[in-house]
Amino acid sequence: MVGTIFDVMNVFLGTVGMVTLALGAIGVINIMLVSVSERTREIGLRKALGATNRSILFHFFLEGLLLTLGSGLLGLIFAGGLMALAGGIQGPGGFDPPKLVPMSALLAIGSLTVAGVIAGLYPARKAAILQPVEALRQE
Questions:
Q1: CA–CA distance, 36 with 61 (Å, rounded to integer)
Q2: What pLDDT sits at residue 12?
Q3: Distance from C-alpha of 21 to C-alpha of 13, rounded to nearest angstrom
Q4: What pLDDT is recorded for position 92?
Q5: In angstroms, how far is CA 60 from the centroid of its own chain?
Q6: What confidence score (pLDDT) does residue 139 get?
Q7: What is the three-class DSSP state of 135?
Q8: Average pLDDT per consecutive 10 residues, the chain (139 residues; last block may be shorter)
Q9: CA 47 to CA 36: how far, in whole Å?
Q10: Using the 8-state DSSP alphabet, how is residue 97 labeled?
Q11: So what's the pLDDT on residue 78?
Q12: How far is CA 19 from CA 12, 23, 100, 112, 122, in A?
């Protein structure tokens, strides 16, 4: 009975985690689309000076990677600090203080980064296919 309860909790928390990742990916798409729209003239200038679609794509890909990896590391540091604070509080008998499991932390940061990179590919592709003349013409 206790094992079943823990299995259901694991499925529930896994589902919450996946929904959170999906919402984070939507946020990354929005941020990157705004970045592309604000930097349309810069992209057009780079393309006019000879930048290839691949270099533009790589630039925005790297930006999305650093954005998600950096935010994941900041979240991990924040969570570690909260766990350190909560570790000093004595709970009821039978409950261990929260611990940061390195494998779970790596899995969370890895999946966040993969979701962010995949989410950043659409805006990066949109930036890469801009025509230089049209991009420079936009206000």
A1: 12
A2: 92
A3: 12
A4: 74
A5: 14
A6: 62
A7: helix
A8: 86 86 81 82 86 87 83 88 82 75 84 81 82 77
A9: 14
A10: P
A11: 92
A12: 11, 6, 22, 12, 20
Residue 13 phi/psi, 5° resolution?
-65, -35
Tokens of 70: 């950096």
Q: What's the pTM value of the predicted model, to 2 decimals?
A: 0.70
What backbone phi and psi angles, to 5 degrees, belong to 76? -65, -40
What SS3 class is residue 98?
coil
Enter the tokens of residue 1.
């009975």
Q: Is 28 exposed, middle or buried (0-12, 13-18, 19+ CB in 10 A)?
A: buried
- Give the residue from 122, 130, 110, 128 showing the smallest Cα distance to 32: 122
Helices 2-38 and 40-48, axial angle in degrees (round to 10): 60
Say how many C-beta atoms besides its own lie within 10 A of residue 47's C-beta.
22
CA separation for the pair 118, 15 (Å, rounded): 19
Q: Are 73 and 109 in contact (CB under 8 A)?
A: yes
